[in-house]
């Protein structure tokens, strides 16, 4: 070993020491390193050294710190007592604290509880706030339904459904409500339908009233309309204003239409509009059918017509209102169709019923009703043309009824009439007479009472009645808005009809009465003459009423009028002839010819003389018979006499005839010819009466003068003296003469008689030949 | 033609207007009555056949107008009349007084042997009577004619009046016939109807060839 090696060894050891000292455990590697290097002896020594070193340090240190240790123990003791003291202090304190804390803890837990409750409450409030609208809405809904305010109810329902319920969806009641909503809807729909039904029922009851009010309004409106007043003749004074009652409100105000509107809204909301519409229309269609059904005996009273018309009118006014305000509940087309159907039914109903009516006043009332009906309907925009037509027809019917009424009037007048000239006994009666009839004749300056007018009392009576008739006619055209010309024409036409048909008919049946005598018939003819003259005044009378210019006597119509009574007059004249003929026939029944008379006594038969005297007296006495009538009557009398005489001659029952009888007939014929030539009636053409006897005259002349050669010679010539004598007639007479001869000539067998007989046979033969030839050759 | 009657009597009704002549005739011919007064104009007649003792008698009864203005016309009929009824109205004094005038009229215009009869009409109007029945009877006696009170309205003795007059005419005629038969001048038998015809033949222009 060298010194350096030794040194190096030392340092190595130091390192080990450091490592051991530096590390608490894990000394293994170090010890290994030591044992590896076989230095354990050395190092033991070295370590020993080191331990001794540290011992020494520890000893020194202990020495140093012992004093301090004692000190410290003392101090520690002291601390112990202090600590005890402190400890007791702390225990008390702790006890105190403990007591105090116990109250606090209790309050604390109370507080906690309260807080919890509070928060719970808040939650509940919040939830309730959510529910509350549901309930208020729900109760609102209930209330609205109860009040039948279905539309708001529906709105509320909707609000409930969409706004409120979703917020409370998780509640059970919400679900329940939700489930109930459709039920409510149904209920509302049903209720609104039932409201509609009630409404329909209601308006059905009410619509006549509405019609009535509407009609009244129209008539008031017409009354105050200056353009109409003139025609109405101010009959109905305008109503004093300001006294409109509750009833005078317009139709729409009278009826509460809200069920419809509500129902409509509701239906709309429920989207059931079409159901609602269909229902409404169907119901109304049913109703209109009922309304249009006229009461069974409507024709019996005005009241029935009135209520019928009111009902119809009311119905359509309502419908019109519904059309205008119902937002398409009904359409124009629907209403139009319904109206046109209704119109034809109305027309038919009114037509049928009014045609039964025989009361003119009632017809007038019906007309007024229809007119008012029309005007009112037109105000509502309904077309009424067929109704106008109906009014026209009604007018004809009215005239017809008037005619019938006047037939009674005329019949009564005629039945009560004595057909005697009117006798006036004093001035008063005269004035009255002149007022009642336009008398054109002159009155003497000094009237001696009793004074006779030429006509009978029928004339002023009929005149007055015709005027009454005209008034009655005019009544119909009032308010008809016809032109004056139309009214004028209508009246004139009716009057003409009245006189030509009705009056003439009555007169004719008067003639037919077997009790009417000649005198009365003549008076009737006279009367018709005066009535005809009075026509001018009737004409004027009409013009005054209608304001149309008088047609004047020359116009065509008046011309027709002047012949108004011609039918009656002809009839009357015919009746005169008839009556005369009856009388003549009575005379002829008294005839007592001896057809085998040998020789006449030179006188006309007494019945012929009586006939002639009677005719003369008659034509002489009836100074008032119109000339024309007298002429006709006289001609017809002559014709009848001639015919009767001829018929007697030809009578088959008379088989035998003597020349003497022919001579008697000749005498009688002469009487007749004298009469015919004596101008028993003025103004007849000369020979016109005689012409009726010509035929007989030729026959008698031929037979009495036995002028057969001339007869045969001139036969069929215009100039023939006997041109009228027919061979057949001559044969009949000759045969009768032959038979007559047989009786009287028995004993007379003179040659002249035998020749005569031969001649007769020859003539007969020749006549028979002539008779073979057809007439006109 | 076969005759429908045996005799034809022409009767005449005269008297003031309004006494009821037409009504009496109407009652007799038609058995009816009419209250309305239609004064007759001129003349009218009715025929009724009656039966007397088995004879058919035709009565042609002329009804005259009583009004003064027809006097001339009506008097022309007096001549042919075989019987005349003078009618007054028992309720009208004047019509009774006028009977004298009517009688005078008859005397002037009718044939002398005409049968006459006095009728007091409207006898049912007892309360209005102005002429007593006795006065009527008295007057009739004065003129030697028959008298009957009648009522056309109540149909009292109208038939009787006409039958009486007809019977009297018939009796008178038959008496005349008989007397004619037995007078030497009446050479041949006359038919009743021929009585009316007075034979005057100068007018006749008939000749038998
Ligand atoms: N109470 C009553 N009235 C009668 C009677 N007979 C006639 N009269 C009425 O008297 C009125 C006149 O009757 P007529 O028969 O027309 O008189 P008349 O005599 O023909 O008159 P003239 O034709 O003018 O001459 C009429 O109103 C009749 O009704 C009667 O017996 N009793
Ligand atoms: Mg008379």
Automatic annotation (TrEMBL), chain A:
<dbReference type="InterPro" id="IPR048359">
    <property type="entry name" value="EXOC6_Sec15_N"/>
</dbReference>
<dbReference type="Pfam" id="PF20651">
    <property type="entry name" value="EXOC6_Sec15_N"/>
</dbReference>
<feature type="domain" description="Exocyst complex subunit EXOC6/Sec15 C-terminal">
    <location>
        <begin position="386"/>
        <end position="736"/>
    </location>
</feature>
<dbReference type="GO" id="GO:0006893">
    <property type="term" value="P:Golgi to plasma membrane transport"/>
</dbReference>
<dbReference type="InterPro" id="IPR046361">
    <property type="entry name" value="EXOC6/Sec15_C"/>
</dbReference>
<comment type="function">
    <text>Component of the exocyst complex involved in the docking of exocytic vesicles with fusion sites on the plasma membrane.</text>
</comment>
<dbReference type="InterPro" id="IPR007225">
    <property type="entry name" value="EXOC6/Sec15"/>
</dbReference>
<dbReference type="GO" id="GO:0016020">
    <property type="term" value="C:membrane"/>
</dbReference>
<comment type="similarity">
    <text>Belongs to the SEC15 family.</text>
</comment>
<dbReference type="GO" id="GO:0090522">
    <property type="term" value="P:vesicle tethering involved in exocytosis"/>
</dbReference>
<dbReference type="InterPro" id="IPR042044">
    <property type="entry name" value="EXOC6PINT-1/Sec15/Tip20_C_dom2"/>
</dbReference>
<feature type="region of interest" description="Disordered">
    <location>
        <begin position="221"/>
        <end position="248"/>
    </location>
</feature>
<dbReference type="GO" id="GO:0006886">
    <property type="term" value="P:intracellular protein transport"/>
</dbReference>
<dbReference type="InterPro" id="IPR042045">
    <property type="entry name" value="EXOC6/Sec15_C_dom1"/>
</dbReference>
<protein>
    <recommendedName>
        <fullName>Exocyst complex component</fullName>
    </recommendedName>
</protein>
<feature type="domain" description="Exocyst complex component EXOC6/Sec15 N-terminal">
    <location>
        <begin position="46"/>
        <end position="215"/>
    </location>
</feature>
<keyword id="KW-0175">Coiled coil</keyword>
<dbReference type="Pfam" id="PF04091">
    <property type="entry name" value="Sec15_C"/>
</dbReference>
<dbReference type="GO" id="GO:0000145">
    <property type="term" value="C:exocyst"/>
</dbReference>
<keyword id="KW-0813">Transport</keyword>
<keyword id="KW-0268">Exocytosis</keyword>
TrEMBL record, chain B:
<dbReference type="GO" id="GO:0003924">
    <property type="term" value="F:GTPase activity"/>
</dbReference>
<dbReference type="InterPro" id="IPR027417">
    <property type="entry name" value="P-loop_NTPase"/>
</dbReference>
<keyword id="KW-0547">Nucleotide-binding</keyword>
<keyword id="KW-0342">GTP-binding</keyword>
<keyword id="KW-0449">Lipoprotein</keyword>
<dbReference type="InterPro" id="IPR050305">
    <property type="entry name" value="Small_GTPase_Rab"/>
</dbReference>
<dbReference type="GO" id="GO:0005525">
    <property type="term" value="F:GTP binding"/>
</dbReference>
<protein>
    <recommendedName>
        <fullName>Ras-related protein Rab-8A</fullName>
    </recommendedName>
</protein>
<dbReference type="InterPro" id="IPR001806">
    <property type="entry name" value="Small_GTPase"/>
</dbReference>
<comment type="similarity">
    <text>Belongs to the small GTPase superfamily. Rab family.</text>
</comment>
<dbReference type="GO" id="GO:0012505">
    <property type="term" value="C:endomembrane system"/>
</dbReference>
<dbReference type="GO" id="GO:0005737">
    <property type="term" value="C:cytoplasm"/>
</dbReference>
<dbReference type="InterPro" id="IPR005225">
    <property type="entry name" value="Small_GTP-bd"/>
</dbReference>
<dbReference type="Pfam" id="PF00071">
    <property type="entry name" value="Ras"/>
</dbReference>
<keyword id="KW-0636">Prenylation</keyword>
<keyword id="KW-0472">Membrane</keyword>
């Amino acid at each position: 070993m060298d010194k350096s090696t030794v040194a190096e060894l030392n340092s190595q050891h130091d390192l080990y020491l450091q490592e051991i000292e530096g590390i608490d455990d894990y000394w293994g590697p170090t010890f290994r390193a030591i044992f590896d290097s076989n230095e354990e002896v050395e190092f033991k020594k070295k370590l020993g050294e080191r331990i001794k070193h540290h011992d020494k340090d520890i000893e020194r240190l202990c020495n140093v710190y012992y004093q301090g240790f004692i000190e410290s123990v003392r101090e520690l003791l002291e601390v112990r007592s202090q600590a005890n003291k402190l400890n007791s202090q702390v225990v008390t304190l702790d006890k105190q604290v403990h007591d105090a804390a116990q109250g606090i803890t209790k309050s604390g837990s109370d507080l906690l509880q309260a807080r919890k409750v509070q928060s719970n409450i808040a939650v509940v409030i919040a939830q309730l706030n959510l529910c509350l609208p549901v309930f208020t809405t729900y109760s609102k809904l209930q209330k609205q339904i109860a009040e039948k305010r279905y539309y708001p109810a529906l709105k509320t329902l909707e609000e409930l459904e969409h706004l409120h319920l979703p917020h409370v969806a998780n509640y059970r009641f919400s679900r329940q409500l939700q489930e109930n909503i459709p039920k409510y809807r149904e209920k509302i729909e049903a209720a609104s339908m039932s409201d509609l039904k009630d409404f329909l029922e209601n308006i059905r009851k009410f619509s006549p009233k509405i019609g009535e009010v509407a009609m009244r309004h129209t008539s008031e409106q017409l009354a105050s309309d200056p353009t109409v007043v003139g025609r109405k003749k101010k009959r109905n004074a305008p109503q004093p204003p300001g006294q409109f009652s509750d009833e005078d409100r317009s139709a729409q105000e009278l009826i509460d239409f809200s069920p419809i509107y509500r129902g409509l809204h509701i239906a709309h909301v429920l989207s059931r509009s079409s159901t609602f519409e269909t229902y409404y229309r169907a119901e109304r269609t049913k109703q209109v059918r009922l309304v249009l059904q006229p009461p069974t005996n409507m024709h019996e009273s005005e009241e029935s017509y009135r209520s019928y018309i009111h009902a119809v009118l009311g119905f359509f006014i309502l419908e019109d209102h519904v059309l205008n305000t119902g937002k398409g509940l009904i359409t124009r087309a629907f209403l139009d169709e319904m109206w046109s159907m209704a119109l034809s039914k109305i027309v038919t109903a009114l037509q049928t019923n009014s045609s039964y009516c025989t009361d003119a006043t009632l017809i007038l009332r019906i007309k007024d009703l229809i007119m008012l009906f029309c005007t009112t309907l037109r105000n509502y925009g309904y077309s009424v043309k067929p109704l106008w037509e109906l009014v026209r027809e009604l007018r004809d019917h009215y005239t017809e009824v008037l005619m019938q009424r006047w037939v009674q009037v005329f019949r009564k007048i005629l039945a009560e009439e004595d057909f005697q000239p009117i006798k006036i006994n004093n001035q008063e009666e005269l004035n009255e007479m002149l007022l009642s009839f336009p008398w054109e004749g002159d009155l003497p300056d000094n009237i001696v009472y009793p004074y006779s007018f030429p006509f009978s009392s029928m004339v002023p009576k009929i005149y007055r009645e015709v005027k009454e008739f005209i008034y009655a006619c005019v009544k119909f055209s009032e308010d008809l808005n016809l032109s004056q010309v139309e009214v004028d024409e209508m009246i004139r036409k009716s009057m003409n009809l009245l006189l030509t048909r009705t009056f003439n008919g009555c007169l004719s049946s008067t003639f037919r009465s077997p009790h009417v005598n000649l005198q009365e018939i003549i008076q009737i003819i006279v009367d018709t003459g005066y009535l005809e003259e009075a026509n001018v005044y009737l004409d004027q009378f009409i013009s005054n009423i209608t304001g149309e210019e008088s047609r004047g006597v020359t116009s065509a119509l008046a011309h027709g009028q002047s012949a108004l009574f011609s039918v009656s007059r002809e009839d009357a004249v015919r009746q005169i002839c008839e009556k005369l003929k009856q009388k003549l026939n009575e005379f002829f029944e008294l005839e007592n010819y001896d057809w085998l008379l040998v020789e006449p006594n030179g006188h006309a038969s007494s019945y012929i003389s009586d006939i002639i005297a009677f005719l003369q007296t008659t034509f002489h006495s009836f100074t008032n018979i119109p000339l024309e009538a007298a002429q006709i009557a006289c001609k017809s009398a002559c014709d009848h006499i001639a015919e009767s005489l001829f018929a007697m001659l030809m009578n088959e029952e008379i088989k035998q005839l003597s020349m003497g009888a022919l001579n008697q007939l000749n005498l009688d014929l002469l009487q007749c010819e004298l009469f015919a030539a004596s101008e028993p009636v003025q103004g007849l053409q000369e020979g016109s009466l005689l012409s009726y006897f010509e035929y007989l005259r030729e026959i008698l002349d031929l037979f009495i003068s036995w002028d057969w050669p001339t007869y045969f010679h001139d036969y069929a010539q215009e100039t023939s003296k006997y041109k009228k004598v027919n061979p057949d007639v001559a044969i009949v007479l000759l045969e009768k003469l032959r038979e007559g001869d047989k009786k009287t000539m028995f004993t007379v067998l003179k040659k002249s008689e035998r020749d005569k007989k031969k001649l007769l046979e020859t003539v007969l033969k020749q006549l028979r030949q002539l008779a073979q030839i057809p007439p006109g050759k | 033609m076969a005759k429908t009657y045996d005799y034809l009597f022409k009767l005449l009704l005269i008297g003031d207007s309004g006494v009821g002549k037409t009504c009496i005739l109407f009652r007799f011919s038609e058995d009816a009555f009419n209250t309305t007064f239609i004064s007759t104009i001129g003349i009218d007649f009715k025929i009724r056949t009656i039966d007397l003792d088995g004879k058919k008698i035709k009565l042609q009864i002329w009804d005259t107008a009583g009004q003064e203005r027809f006097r001339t016309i009506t008097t022309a009929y007096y001549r042919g009349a075989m019987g005349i009824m003078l009618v007054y109205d028992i309720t009208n004094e004047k019509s009774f007084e006028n009977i004298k005038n009517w009688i005078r009229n008859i005397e002037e215009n009718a044939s002398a042997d005409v049968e006459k009869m006095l009728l007091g009409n409207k006898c049912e109007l007892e309360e209005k009577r102005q002429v007593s029945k006795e006065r009527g009877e008295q007057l009739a006696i004065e003129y030697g004619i028959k008298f009957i009170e009648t009522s056309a309205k109540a149909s009292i003795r109208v038939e009787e009046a006409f039958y009486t007059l007809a019977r009297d005419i018939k009796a008178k005629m038959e008496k005349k016939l008989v007397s004619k038969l037995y007078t030497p001048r009446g050479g041949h038998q006359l038919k009743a109807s021929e009585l009316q015809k007075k034979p005057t033949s100068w007018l006749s222009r008939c000749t038998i060839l």
